[in-house]
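Re: the 96-residue chain
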Amino acid sequence: MYVCICKGVTENVIREAVEQGAERMRDLKECLGVTEQCGICACHAKQALEQALAQKTLAQQQKVLADKQNAQSQQLKAPSQRFAAASGPLCENFCL
């Protein structure tokens, strides 16, 4: 959906700008020209910016959580693998 008709800026373009580092309305104005002409788009542009920032933050949090879960999973596997590797030679030494 178009946010700024004067500059032809859509919500998708604002999402892309946020992915590239835009965090404030000033950033959108500088890189996309939003609100430079008539200014009617300011409220909707701000809403689109806030929504894109929230989505970006949520995606980052989900990635951190997935990474933590993956690390914990690897840690749970590691002790059993170490025990299996250590039990072979130790058992042979004790069985003699």
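The first helix runs from residue 11 to 19.
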